[in-house]
Amino acid sequence: MDSGSVSDQVYLNKSFGIACKIPAGWVLRTEEMNSRDGASDAGQAEAKDAGKVRDASGGRVLLAAFSRPPEARAEDVNASILIAAESSAAYPGLKDAAQYFGPVIEVAKAQGFEIDDDPYEFVVGTKPVVRGDFQKDVGTRVMRQSTLVMLARGYAVSFTFIGGTEDEVEELVQGLSFVAAKTAH
Predict the structure, then answer these.
(1) Domains plus CATH for the chain?
(2) DSSP codes joined into one string, 113-181
(3) Across-strand partners of 149?
(4) pLDDT tens sequence across 90-139
(5) How far apart are CA 35 and CA 141, in angstroms?
């Protein structure tokens, strides 16, 4: 699986045809999220809040970006972008992206998130994806999460955006775009 790369504050994955803008000054934690012994670090805790964790079913974090280092505590929500791909083979009978929301909702609820409404089709550029919006009370503030899912090249690809306000999350979602995917030889 092509993990993609970051250049000039943009994550690009040509195999899946994904481009995602990363706000200036954000920190990347992709490698830490994928490391086997990273389970105890603060970044892994943030990923659990995002509702996706690398697991034995062939899942891999393609991008983990945070507004500040996960270990740097502050009063506001640590906004984040998490892109992950998980083998569709791990979910026998998976035919469309909406079906993948069963596991997404289960993990989000385990992390204290409540789903705002049923997942729905959402268009990014010209690409239809399925989107679910969640929220979680964290002390005196609310953490908001939007997860978008598509099926591509034998994978369920999820895009999770976390922020402290709906506007912040929408701004992050607007940074996602789809480009021509590289054809396999």
Answers:
(1) 5-178 (3.40.1000.10)
(2) -EESS--EEEEETTEEEEEEEEEEEETTEEEEEEEEEEEETTEEEEEEEEESSHHHHHHHHHTEEE-PP
(3) 130, 158
(4) 999 999 999 999 999 999 999 999 999 999 999 998 899 999 999 999 88
(5) 31
